Amino acid sequence: MGFLKKDSDFSSGEHYSVVSAECYFQGALSVQGSLRVDGTLEGTVDNARHVIVGTEGKIVGDVTAQVVVCGGVIEGNVCADMLEVLAPASIKGDIRAKKMMVEEGGRIDGRCAIGGTEGEEISSDDEAEEDDKSKK
């Protein structure tokens, strides 16, 4: 991403927030720019443009962003336009994304709704309907 490099484009108005490896944060974050988590964040992340979870990073809570790149651990639901799960990352929660890429070694423990329309929600009713259809 290069946002700590000298040639970064800070004039674009893009805001970057970092929870470094030494940090522990508890609470809800409404991030209108990009967020990188290398430490531990307990709480929800809303309204972000990009959320990057480093290999040692951990988010315990729901994440809503345009782009989510997970290299560490997310324990919560993820809603994104694009989700990338790197090896050996893990996500424990339901996923709703327009596009998703999972590297070999990346783990997901939850239900996935990929490529649906924006208004769709993941619910247990959908699962029950599918079970009823398969029994008929």
What does this structure look like?
With 136 residues, this protein is mainly beta. The chain has one domain (14-135). Helices cover 9% and strands 47% of the residues. The chain contains one helix and 14 strands. The strands form two sheets. Strands 1, 3, 4, 6, 8, 10, 12 and 14 form an eight-stranded parallel sheet that branches. The model is unreliable at 1-11 and 122-136 (pLDDT under 50).
Largest sheet, strands/sense/barrel: 8 strands, parallel
* Average pLDDT taken over every residue: 84
What is the total domain count?
A: 1
Poorly predicted runs: 1-11, 122-136
Global outline: globular
Number of helices: 1
Helix content: under 10%
Order of helices and strands: EEEEEEEEEEEEEEH
Strand fraction band?
over 45%
Give the C-alpha Rg: 16 Å
Distance between the termini: 50 Å
Q: Which structural category fits the helices and strands?
A: mainly beta
Concise summary:
The protein has 136 residues and is mainly β.
Helix-strand blueprint:
Layout (H helix, E strand, L loop, with lengths): L15 E4 L4 E3 L2 E2 L3 E4 L2 E3 L2 E9 L4 E3 L2 E8 L2 E3 L2 E8 L4 E3 L2 E8 L4 E3 L2 E3 L9 H12 L1
Parallel strand pairs: 1-4, 2-5, 3-6, 4-6, 5-7, 6-8, 7-9, 8-10, 9-11, 10-12, 11-13, 12-14
Keywords:
mainly beta; eight-stranded parallel β-sheet; 136 residues; six-stranded parallel β-sheet
